[in-house]
Design a protein that fits this description.
The protein has helices spanning about 15, 20-55, 65-70, 95-100, 120-135, 180-200, 215-230, 250, 255-260, 270-280, 305-320, 335-355, 370-380, 400, 415-430, 445-465, 475-495, 495-515, 525-530; strands at about 5, 85-90, 105-110, 140, 145-150, 160, 170-175, 180, 205-210, 240-245, 265-270, 320-330, 360-365, 440, 445. It has about 525 residues and is an alpha/beta fold. The strands form four sheets. It has an eight-stranded parallel beta sheet with strand order 6-3-2-13-12-11-10-9. A three-stranded antiparallel beta sheet has the order 1-7-8. Strands 4-5 form a two-stranded antiparallel ribbon.
C-alpha cells in the first residue's frame, strides 16, 4: 500500500506541500529508516528497565576510545558562527513565525515539537511558513487588518527547525497502513521543500534534534541526513544539527552523540526542563533519593544541574561544537511593568551565569527578552562570535555528580502539588485546542514543563512523599481531591464552552496518567489521540 494522507479536512494551500514528489520522499525515508527507529525505541525501554533495577547510570565502557581520542566536529558554516541569542517558538501560525524572524535574535528555533500541537493543520502550516520564509514571501494579515511582514532593514534570524522526537507517530500519514514516524514526516517535508532554497540563500537546512537517549539514535539521524542530501544532490555536510541533551541517558553520551554526527554536528543544547522530566521518568521507581522538590525550587545552580551544564560546555568546546544554554521560561507582561521588571532581572541572572560558564548563546521565549540576552552575551563575547576557545579543562564530572538529585535544595509541598496539577490540566487543555505554548502565571509553559508537573505527581504518589507545609502524605485520594479543586478553579477562569471542550478531557487525561499504576512515557502520546 503506498503512502496516503488520511485527514479529510481541507487545509489551505496544503497541495503546495503534499505533492506526490514530497510524499514519495517521505515514504522512502520511512522505508529505509523506520525499522531502525522502532528497534531503538525498544532498546530505550530495555535500558530503562535495567537502570530501574540498580538506580545507576554510567558512562559507556565500550565507547571509552571515542571519549579519549582527539577529534572535532566539522567547522560551523558562516550562518551559524554567532548564536548568542536564540528565539524559540512554534512555526505556526504565521504571525508568530514572522515575529520570531523579526525579533533581532541570531537564530530562531522553529518548533514543530514541544511548543506545537501536532494537528495536521499545524504541521502543514508550519512547513508552508518555513518554505515561504526561505523565499522571503512570508506575510500575514489579521482579521483586524494588521499586516505582518518580514523586515528588510535588519538581518532576519537564521532558522533552525526542530522536528518531533523519534517516539511520536504521525497518524495522518499512513505507510503500508501504519502511522508514519512524526520525525521523518517533519524532516522529510521540510528538507524536500526548503533545503535547496536555504543553500541558495547562503545558509542551509539546520535542525535541532530532540529527545534522543543514545548515540545510536544520533547515528540514525546522521544516516537520514546523508541519504537526504544524496537524494537532493546536496553536498554531504550541508545539513547541520544541534542536539538537545534533554534526557539523563544522553548526558552520559555527549561525546558519542557528537561523534556520530560529526560531519553534520553544530552543537549541543542544555534542554533543562526536559532533562528534569527525564530524571523523574528514568528513576521514578528508584526510591525517595530521586524525588525532586517542587519544580519551582529546582535551580540551575543545584549541584547535579551544574554538573550537567559544565560537562556539556566542556564536551562541546573540546570537540569544536557550540554549547547552547537553556530556556528562560519567565516572560514579560506589557500590561504589568512589575512583572516585566522581575522577568528581565531573572533572565539577566540566568544568562549571565551561562555566558560566564562558557556557553556560546542561549534561548529566550519572547521577543522582548532578546535585547537582555544579547546584552549579557555581548558583554562577555565582545567582538568574538562565540567562545569555543573556552575549554574548561578544570571541569571533571562523575556519574555520581550527574545523579546526585538529593543535592537539590527545596521541599515537596502541597502548594507545589497544587501548582503541578493546575499547570498539567491548564497546559493540556490549551494543547488539545491546538496551541503548544502558553503563558501560565507569567511563565512560558510547553510540553516539557507539563511533563515535569504530571511526572512529579505520579512519583510522589508512588513514594508516599510527605508534604512539608501540611504534613500530609501524597496519596491517590489526596491527588484526586486537589485535582478536582484545581480543575474547578480553572472552570472559573475560562468560559463554559471552552471548559467543556478542552478542560474536561484534559482533567480526565491528567487523572488517568497521574493515578495509574503504570507510568505513561509521554503525556503527548495519549493527548495526540484526542486532537485532529
Amino acid at each position: 500500500m503506498p503512502i496516503s494522507v488520511t485527514d479529510p479536512r481541507p487545509i489551505e494551500r496544503a497541495e503546495e506541500i503534499l505533492t506526490p514528489e514530497a510524499l514519495a520522499f517521505v515514504e522512502e525515508l520511512h522505508t529505509r529508516f523506520a525499522g531502525t527507529r522502532n528497534e531503538l525505541l525498544a532498546a530505550r525501554a530495555l535500558k530503562r528497565q535495567r537502570v530501574a533495577e540498580t538506580g545507576k547510570l554510567d558512562f559507556l565502557p565500550e565507547t571509552q576510545d571515542v571519549r579519549d581520542s582527539d577529534w572535532k566536529v566539522a567547522p560551523a558554516p558562516a550562518a551559524l558562527q554567532d548564536r548568542r541569542v536564540e528565539m524559540t517558538g512554534p512555526a505556526s501560525p504565521a504571525k508568530m513565525a514572522i515575529n520570531a524572524l523579526n525579533s533581532g535574535a541570531k537564530v530562531w528555533l522553529a518548533d514543530l515539537e514541544d511548543a506545537s500541537t501536532p494537528t495536521w493543520a499545524n504541521v502543514v502550516d508550519a512547513i508552508l511558513n518555513l518554505r515561504d520564509a526561505a523565499r522571503g514571501t512570508l506575510a500575514y494579515t489579521s482579521e483586524e487588518g494588521k499586516e505582518y511582514r518580514l523586515r528588510t532593514d535588519v538581518p532576519l534570524a537564521v532558522v533552525v527547525a526542530r522536528p518531533r522526537g523519534w517516539h511520536m507517530p504521525e497518524k495522518h500519514v499512513l505507510i503500508d497502513g501504519e502511522p508514519a514516524v512524526g520525525a521523518l514526516v517533519d524532516f522529510g517535508l521540510h528538507f524536500f521543500h526548503v533545503a535547496r532554497q536555504l543553500v541558495d540563500n547562503g545558509q542551509g537546512p539546520y535542525y535541532y534534534l530532540p529527545k534522543m537517549e543514545s548515540h545510536l539514535e544520533a547515528r540514525l539521524w546522521n544516516n537520514v541526513f546523508a541519504f537526504a542530501q544524496e537524494q537532493l544532490g546536496l553536498p554531504q555536510g550541508t545539513v547541520r544539527a544541534t542536539v538537545l541533551i534533554e534526557t539523563i541517558p544522553a548526558a552520559f553520551e555527549m561525546d558519542e552523540i557528537l561523534y556520530e554526527l560529526r560531519d553534520h554536528a553544530s552543537g549541543l543544547n542544555a534542554g533543562r526542563w526536559d532533562y528534569l522530566f527525564s530524571i523523574i521518568k528514568y528513576f521514578r521507581d528508584a526510591g525517595e533519593q530521586f524525588v525532586l522538590p517542587d519544580r519551582a525550587s529546582v535551580a540551575m545552580t543545584a549541584p547535579f544541574m551544574r554538573a550537567y551544564t559544565e560537562l556539556l560546555v566542556k564536551t562541546c568546546h573540546k570537540r569544536g561544537a557550540f554549547a547552547m544554554g537553556g530556556m528562560a521560561a519567565v516572560i514579560p507582561n506589557r500590561r504589568h511593568p512589575e512583572v516585566t521588571e522581575a522577568a528581565f532581572a531573572k533572565v539577566r541572572a540566568d544568562k549571565t551565569r551561562e555566558a560566564n560558564d562558557g556557553f556560546d548563546g542561549s534561548w529566550v521565549a519572547h521577543p522582548d527578552l532578546v535585547p537582555t540576552c544579547r546584552e549579557v552575551f555581548d558583554s562577555v563575547l565582545g567582538d568574538k562570535p562565540n567562545q569555543l576557545d573556552k575549554q574548561r579543562p578544570e571541569v571533571s564530572v562523575t556519574a555520581e555528580q550527574l545523579l546526585d538529585v538529593a543535592s537539590a535544595d527545596g521541599q515537596v509541598t502541597e502548594a507545589g502539588l497544587r501548582l503541578n496539577l493546575y499547570v498539567a490540566v491548564a497546559y493540556t487543555a490549551v494543547w488539545l485546542s491546538g496551541n503548544g505554548a502558553v503563558a501560565i502565571h507569567n511563565l512560558m509553559e510547553d510540553a516539557a514543563t507539563a511533563e515535569i508537573s504530571r511526572s512529579q505527581v505520579w512519583q510522589q504518589i508512588r513514594n508516599k512523599s510527605m508534604l512539608a507545609d501540611t504534613g500530609n502524605t501524597v496519596t491517590r485520594e489526596l491527588v484526586e481531591r486537589i485535582l478536582g479543586e484545581e480543575t474547578e478553579r480553572l472552570r472559573t477562569e475560562v468560559g463554559d464552552e471552552t471548559f467543556r471542550r478542552y478542560y474536561q478531557p484534559a482533567n480526565k487525561l491528567i487523572a488517568d496518567i497521574c493515578l495509574s499504576e503504570d507510568y505513561t512515557d509521554f503525556l503527548t502520546t495519549p493527548a495526540y489521540e484526542l486532537v485532529g
